[in-house]
Design a protein that fits this description.
mainly alpha; 0% strand; transmembrane helix
Length: 294
Amino acid sequence: MSSLPPPGVIPNATFEQNDCDAKALDWALFILTIISTYVTWWLFPLPTLFRLGFRAYLHDVSWESLRLLVPSMTAFKAIAQDRTHWQMSYYSGVAKPSTRLQDLKAFLKDSIIIVSTILAIYRLCKGGKADQNLSGLNSSLWNYPSLPVAVLGLCVSIFARIQVRNWIMYVVTLIIIFTIGGAMAAIIAVTFGHGIWISPLFILIYMALPLWKLSPKLFVASIVASAGARMMGPIVGAVSPEAYFPFCPLRGWKFSGPLLGIGIVNCILAFYGTRLVPRVEATPPPSDTEMLEK
């Protein structure tokens, strides 16, 4: 008896040049994915380079790299500080109270991830050719591994302002993560009725859990696996004939090669970031008015 693939699935599909059918939504999702994965970690700390020099910039960009790849590690490092410093410690690697402008910057960081994830769910639920390939190369699944970064940041920001026991904070955070992951899995499973939901759910929960605490050696595997989950989709999609990659002008190593190089640098900096703790600035944070005047 021959086993037939599930409806809508093309076994061993090879997508040709005539699959250049990316719509505006696909391009928006793709651009947000590239920005949140390959750009924000070195761009947002850039003012530190001109204000405090390369050493401080190296600290901040390494911290940001670690936050995006192993957010649970930066969260644990952050909550080891004074509670008023939690938010800035998590988002910037600087142990100081946050100002309104810095709150806005943190919101901007996470909003890119959240908006791109919402667009990804919407795009995935629309169905179509993009969802005939159920591999991890599906362009609608590239955003999920980044979502725990925003979820943990939101939890750290909230609990920095609420006096609760740490175990309550841990339990509530886990409930939020599993609820979001379960809701996303349910939406995808109801829409498609097959196992496409397993991969994003597993990766989302894996990125959020502090598995590295089981053994110090696991942080190496955590960084490598997280980097693969967050970055390899666009890289492999651009060069693999098996992947649905409708952004045909970007196909080939001319596009994926630089992304691979940026990803390797991101991993190296994240490894260095595991040795860091939030730095302390000698001067108190300026007020919002002073920041605006500057």
